């Protein structure tokens, strides 16, 4: 009898303050919806056992059906704290996909490639660096839960991680500043 598919949790990081954007980045309009909802919708297209949305204190983001809000009270200390908070809050997952809420163009097909990985897998960026979205097996959850500050999962010794390029480089666009969002809007 084949072994059952692993249960996959999704942690969507939406706790950043968007300082370079001038605030309000994740709730800014993109194609008629708040920016963060595009990443959430893509995450909803994969089979997952649970979906967690990590937000900071006083976040204007309200939950979305099918998502559980996790507040990171120390979000201002950096992304590592949000990864740790999200992974710690997982209740029923054998592995986790970590995504960023300011990357609206990541596709279902790219997430599908990550889901095929047997261990740790990061997205391969054009500059040959590793980043999000990424997938991690339960065996590394304790390491993810130990993250603090601005250190992300790339800073951990996770052995031989697979690097997976998305079908189209454009999917890796993230919105940091207002001009990034304006470029995305004008490219439509």
TrEMBL record:
Gene3D superfamilies (UniProt xref): Spore Coat Polysaccharide Biosynthesis Protein SpsA, Chain A (3.90.550.10)
CDD domains assigned: GT_2_like_f
Domain MobA-like NTP transferase: 10-156
Protein name per its UniProtKB record: Nucleotidyltransferase family protein
Keyword vocabulary terms for this entry: Magnesium
Record-linked PANTHER family: MOLYBDENUM COFACTOR CYTIDYLYLTRANSFERASE (PTHR43777)
A Pfam family recorded for this sequence: NTP_transf_3
SUPFAM superfamilies in alphabetical order: Nucleotide-diphospho-sugar transferases
Species annotation: Qipengyuania gelatinilytica
Keyword Magnesium: yes
């Amino acid at each position: 009898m084949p072994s059952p598919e692993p249960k996959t949790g999704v942690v969507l990081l939406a706790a950043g303050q968007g300082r370079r954007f001038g605030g309000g980045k994740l709730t800014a309009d993109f194609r008629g919806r708040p920016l963060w909802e595009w990443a959430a919708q893509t995450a909803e297209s994969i089979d997952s056992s649970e979906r967690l949305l990590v937000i900071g204190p006083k976040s204007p983001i309200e939950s979305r059906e099918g998502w559980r809000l996790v507040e990171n009270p120390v979000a201002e200390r950096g992304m590592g704290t949000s990864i740790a908070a999200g992974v710690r809050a997982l209740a029923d997952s054998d592995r986790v996909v970590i995504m960023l809420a300011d990357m609206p163009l990541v596709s279902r097909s790219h997430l599908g490639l990550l889901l095929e990985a047997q261990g740790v897998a990061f997205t391969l960026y054009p500059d040959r660096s590793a980043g999000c979205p990424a997938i991690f097996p339960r065996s590394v959850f304790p390491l993810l839960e130990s993250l603090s500050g601005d250190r992300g999962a790339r800073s951990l010794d996770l052995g031989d991680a697979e690097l997976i390029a998305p079908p189209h480089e454009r999917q890796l666009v993230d919105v940091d500043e207002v001009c990034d969002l304006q470029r995305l809007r004008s490219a439509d």
